[in-house]
Automatic annotation (TrEMBL):
Listed name of the protein: Oligosaccharide flippase family protein
InterPro entries per the UniProt record, alphabetical: Poly_Biosynth_Transport
Claim: Transmembrane helix is one of the keywords in the record: yes
Species whose genome carries this gene: Falsiroseomonas selenitidurans
Membrane-spanning ranges: 20-40, 46-67, 88-107, 119-138, 150-169, 175-195, 291-315, 321-343, 355-376, 382-402, 423-442, 454-475
Annotated family: Belongs to the polysaccharide synthase family.
Pfam families according to UniProt: Polysacc_synt_3
C-alpha cells in the first residue's frame, strides 16, 4: 500500500531543511568568495560596494509590497492575480531603479567618492532587471517545494562567485563585484522562467485583490526597518561609532539561533500555515502547537547557552578588544529565548493576512525600544542598550505569541503543556552551568584561556539538557509531542537512505512525524 501523504508538519520540516541548507550554503559560498577576493581586491573596493548595496537594498526592502505572499495565501490564485503581481513587481523594480539612479550623483558628492556614482547607476539597472523575475516561482513556496527554490537560488549564486573571482583576476577593481551581482540577478531571472511554465502578461486587473495587502506589507517592511536601525542610531549619537561596533558584534552573535535557524524555519512555516488554513493539514491550531514545541527543543537551550558562555566565546572569537560586547551577548541571548514563539506566531498571522496586527505590534515595539534606549543608554552605556532592546523584544514577542494563540483559538495552557519538558530541561542546564562556574562567568584574560571552559560548558550543557529532556519525557510516559516529532523526523530523513529504508523500526518511527 502506498504511503499516505506527508503531514503539513513533515512537509514544513522538510522545507525548513532546504531553507536552512540554503542559508548555510550561502554563508559558506560567501566566505569562500570573500577569502579569495580579499587577496585580489583592496578594502576600498569592498567598502565602496558595501556602501552602494546597503543603500540600494534598504530602498528595495522599504518598497517591497508582498505580492508573492498573497499568492501563497490565496485558496485558488487566478491567472490574473499572477499577472497583476508581476506587473506590480515590474513597476516596483523600475521605481527602485529610478530612485537609485537619481540618488547616484548626490550620494557620490555626499560621501566624497566619484566612483560611487557609476556603481549606483549599475545597481539601478540591476534593480530594474529584478522586476522582470518570474512570479510563477512563488508556487515553489506555496506548494512547499523548497528543494526547487534551493536550486533556483544556489546555482546563480555559484555562477556569480565564479564570475566575480574571474573578473577580479582580470580587472582588479570593484567592477568584479558588480559583475557578480549582475550574474546573480540574471541567473535567477533565467532559471525562474526555465523552472516554471508561467509567462508574463502585463495587466492590473486583479489590483483590488492586492491593493490592501500590498499597502500593509509596505508599511510592515518600513516599520521593521525603522525599528531594527534604532539602536545603532541612538548608540552612535550618544556614545560614538566604536560602541556601535561592539554592539553590532554582540547582537549578531547573540541572535545566531534566530538568524541561522528560526528565521529560515519561519520562512517555511508561513506557506505551511497557509496550506493548513486551506484545509490541507490536521488543523491550524495543531500544526501551530507542534511546530512551536519542536522549535522550543532547539531554541531554548541555544539561547540560554549563548548567553551563559558569552565571555569565553567573545574572548576566543574576537579577542580582548571586543570584551565590551560580552554583556550585549548575555542579555540579548536571554531575550532571544522567546523569539521562536514570536516569529512562528508572526508567520501564522502573515499566513492569515493579519498584517494590520503585525504593523501595530512592530510600531509599538519600535516606540518602546526607542524610549528605553533614550533612557538606559545615557545611564548604563552598552549594557543599558542591550537591556532596552531585550525588554522591547520580550514585549514584542509576547504580544505576537498572544495574538497567534488567539488567532487559532488557543490559550496558554495547551502551549505550556507542550513546552514544559524542554523548558524545564533548559532551566536545569542553565543551573548546572551556573553551579559549575561555567555559566555567566567573567571573561578570561586571554583567548587561549577561553578554550577549556568553553569546551567544558558545551559538554556539560548539551549532556545535561539531553539527559534531563530524556528523563522528563520518559517519566511522562513518552507521550506524543515535540520529542516524538523530532525523533520521527530524524528517522524519516534516515529512512530516505536505500540501505536503511527496509528496516521495520524505521517504518514505524516515521509514522510519528505524519
Amino acid at each position: 500500500m502506498a504511503d499516505p501523504a506527508p503531514s503539513i508538519l513533515a512537509r514544513t520540516a522538510r522545507g525548513a531543511f532546504w531553507v536552512v541548507g540554503w542559508r548555510l550554503a550561502t554563508r559558506l559560498l560567501g566566505l569562500v568568495n570573500t577569502l579569495i577576493l580579499v587577496r585580489l581586491l583592496g578594502p576600498e573596493d569592498f567598502g565602496l560596494i558595501a556602501l552602494a548595496t546597503t543603500f540600494a537594498i534598504a530602498l528595495d526592502i522599504c518598497l517591497a509590497i508582498g505580492v508573492e505572499e498573497q499568492i501563497i495565501r490565496a485558496p485558488s490564485p487566478s491567472r490574473a492575480l499572477y499577472d497583476t503581481g508581476f506587473t506590480l513587481n515590474l513597476l516596483r523594480g523600475l521605481l527602485v531603479g529610478a530612485l537609485v539612479a537619481l540618488a547616484a550623483a548626490p550620494a557620490a558628492e555626499f560621501f566624497g567618492d566619484a566612483r560611487l556614482e557609476p556603481v549606483l547607476l549599475a545597481l539601478a539597472v540591476s534593480a530594474a532587471i529584478s522586476g522582470l523575475a518570474s512570479i510563477g516561482v512563488a508556487d515553489f513556496r506555496r506548494n512547499l517545494q523548497f528543494e526547487r527554490e534551493f536550486a533556483l537560488y544556489i546555482y546563480p549564486r555559484f555562477a556569480s562567485i565564479v564570475v566575480a573571482i574571474g573578473m577580479a583576476f582580470l580587472v582588479r577593481s570593484h567592477w568584479a563585484l558588480v559583475a557578480g551581482i549582475f550574474v546573480n540577478r540574471l541567473g535567477i531571472l533565467g532559471m525562474g522562467y526555465a523552472m516554471h511554465p508561467w509567462r508574463p502578461r502585463l495587466t492590473l486587473s486583479a489590483w483590488r485583490e492586492l491593493a490592501g495587502i500590498s499597502a500593509w506589507s509596505w508599511l510592515l517592511n518600513l516599520a521593521i526597518t525603522a525599528k531594527d536601525r534604532s539602536e545603532s542610531l541612538v548608540i552612535g549619537r550618544l556614545m560614538g561609532t566604536t560602541p556601535v561596533g561592539h554592539y553590532a558584534v554582540g547582537a549578531e552573535l547573540a541572535t545566531l539561533p534566530t538568524t541561522e535557524l528560526i528565521d529560515p524555519i519561519c520562512r517555511a512555516c508561513m506557506p505551511g500555515f497557509a496550506a493548513s488554513r486551506r484545509g490541507e493539514g490536521a488543523s491550524p491550531a495543531e500544526d501551530y502547537l507542534r511546530i512551536m514545541a519542536l522549535l522550543a527543543l532547539l531554541t531554548l537551550p541555544a539561547g540560554l547557552g549563548i548567553s551563559a558562555v558569552a565571555g569565553p566565546v567573545v574572548a576566543l572569537g574576537f579577542g580582548q578588544a571586543w570584551l565590551e560586547a560580552v554583556p550585549v551577548v548575555a542579555v540579548l541571548g536571554l531575550a532571544g529565548i522567546l523569539t521562536s514563539f514570536g516569529n512562528v506566531s508572526a508567520a501564522m498571522l502573515n499566513a492569515h493576512a493579519r498584517l494590520a496586527t503585525l504593523v501595530a505590534i512592530v510600531v509599538a515595539a519600535g516606540v518602546l525600544r526607542l524610549g528605553l534606549l533614550l533612557v538606559l543608554v545615557p545611564a548604563m552605556g552598552l549594557p543599558g542598550a542591550a537591556i532596552a532592546v531585550g525588554l522591547a523584544l520580550l514585549a514584542e514577542h509576547v504580544a505576537l505569541l498572544l495574538r497567534g494563540l488567539g488567532l487559532v483559538g488557543l490559550g496558554l495552557a495547551p502551549l505550556l503543556a507542550r513546552l514544559w519538558r524542554p523548558a524545564a530541561a533548559a532551566a536545569l542546564m542553565a543551573l548546572l552551568l551556573w553551579q559549575a562556574g561555567l555559566g555567566w562567568a567573567p571573561p578570561p584574560g586571554a583567548a587561549g584561556q577561553a578554550v577549556a571552559p568553553l569546551l567544558a560548558a558545551m559538554a556539560l550543557g548539551a549532556g545535561g539538557y539531553l539527559a534531563a529532556l530524556s528523563l522528563f519525557w520518559a517519566v511522562s510516559g513518552r507521550p506524543a509531542g515535540a520529542e516524538r516529532d523530532l525523533f520521527g523526523l530524524l528517522w524519516r530523513l534516515l529512512g530516505r537512505l536505500p540501505l536503511l529504508r527496509r528496516l521495520p523500526v524505521l517504518r514505524q518511527a516515521t509514522e510519528a512525524s505524519r
